[in-house]
Specification:
- Helix content is 44%, strand content 21%.
- The protein is built from 22 helices and 26 strands.
- A hairpin with a 2-residue loop joins strand 20 and strand 21 (514-519).
Length: 671
Amino acid sequence: MFRSALASRHRRRCFQIAVILTASIVILNLPWARHRVPGASLLLSLELKLIDWRFQERGARPVPPEVAIAAIDEKSIRQVGRWPWPRATMAEVIRSLRALGARAVVFDIFYAERDSSPGGKDSDLALARATRAAHDVFHAWFGSTRDQTAAEVPEDQLTALEESAWPLRVVPRPGHSLLTYVSATPPLPELTRAARAIGYADFRDSGDGIFRFYDLAAQYDGLTYPSLALAVAARDLGVPPDHITVLPGDTLRLGDQHIVPLVADAAMLLDFYGPDGTIPRVSVADVLTRRVSPHDLAGKVVVVGVTAKGAYELRPSPFGAVFYGVELQATAIGNLLSGRGLRVSNILVDLLITVGFGLIVGLGLPLWRPALGSLLSLALFVGYNILCVGMFNRGNYVMPMAAPNVALVACVLATLAYRLTTEERRRSRLTTMFGLFVPPEVVEQLAAEDAKAAQLEAARREVTILFTDVWDFTSYAERRQAEDVVALLNRYFSLMHEVVWQYGGTLDKYMGDGLMAFFGAPTYQADHPQRAVLCAIEMLRQTKLHRAEWAAFGLEDLRVGIGIHAGEALVGYAGSKGRMQYTCLGSAVNLASRLEELNREFDTEILISEALYEQVKDVVEAKPIGRTRIRGLSNEVLVYSVLGRKTDERPDGEAPGEAERDDRRKPADGA
């Protein structure tokens, strides 16, 4: 019962540790931490890194055939001249792309200010005319979420921007809202009105300098506007603006064409196709000279952007620091046109998995041995992460990895640390409890095993009890100085103590000039009767071998009497709260004590009971003394005097071998 209570307490402590750690991790991963607020959550930062790792493990994947990039690269600048180019040159780019079969041209370039160079007005008009003539041309604008001092935007540009607002259906959700700009820099008004549509082209990093998310809709001055990618995808798919529904933090519906999963507010997690250069790219230099195969651009949405060095268009992605803004736009457009955006598990799934891992560890680990528990935890850790990678690669589904893994590892480490600390305390406790009265190897066995004998609650055990007493010690003590008496006892008890431990006995107590020991507890010993009797014979031998020492202490002839009996006794800790003693109690103990007293009456040295004799008669020579009445017992007891070991047994003083002891040990019943 005590053992069960102790085990239950340890399991409860382990469970409490797991619950506290899991609750802490859940708090760190609360819903607001998923809104990409820089520094909001360490777990969010770890989760983002693990998403990057999954992208890298997956590698490049097929790009939708509808998307391509026309890059203003170093080659283009060498051919055309220093960037930025005249607007008339960009008008020629539009005409060339249309001539090569591009179905739409998307500018990831801002034209918010008029060309102030000579002939700049005509150049602006040329770009506007080319935009209108090509029909499917999209221009970009940008906004800011912070108050900042900037050049005042002409009224006509703001008016044109208001005219381009889309009547998107935004369903209010508690705790979620659209990205809101406090200032805007729209394109020239003639470009805004000539374009098929305009959209903002801003990106926000994830708080760590890496761009993973893309806002699809935003608000400015009370009106709702689409992003550049959403404007392109909606027009290309033929979805009217009023058929686009935004459920912030959940989904964006493009009519009945596609459902785009949102991570937070109106932001989606970009499904990157691979590192820099994965999306097909042609040089604008080749576009202007028509040296591009029509098959490279025919029927595609072509995004025009700058990739030349020094243009400051780098936007680090999960695949590395070299990734351009035009590639982000092309990735977002490809995701929307293909309808294959990444789905991210909601916060409820994250919490359930995290709490589930904490409960599994908290409830399961205390039931298993540390090695088995560690192995099963490792299998759970590896298996879950393989599942996460598989769902990402094949199902475009992002399962939580940071919180569950942290919960699992933290709970396992904390639980194992608690168990190891508890085990160390248990070893120390056992050493303290038993180290003074059982041999060191027995203490080690108790510490190594979850031994039932190590419990504090008393239990009935079959044991052999041994009592010794020095004859005529009282008269000796009256004649000698106290220092001599104490020195003699210390030397005598040291010898007897060593003999008891030599035979694997438990030293119970010293009683004046007497000693009590027992065999068969706290560890099981199948041969405890033989051990006790052989121990008694060795005690007599050691007493006689050291006669010269006793004489030096003033005791010419030190004689001892020993009584031994085997039977059932109550073994365990007894005493008060302040002082406990590991001992055995019962009639078997009383009988052994009475046998020791009878030695003086029969002038013998070792007396054993009939019950004990039947168990050791093959080991020792003994003769019956006769039946005698024992004080406290109703029936007479046949008593035997032990003469010595049988000659075919081990040499005197040799204890049973350690291998034999180990073979004979097994859990004791009732212990």
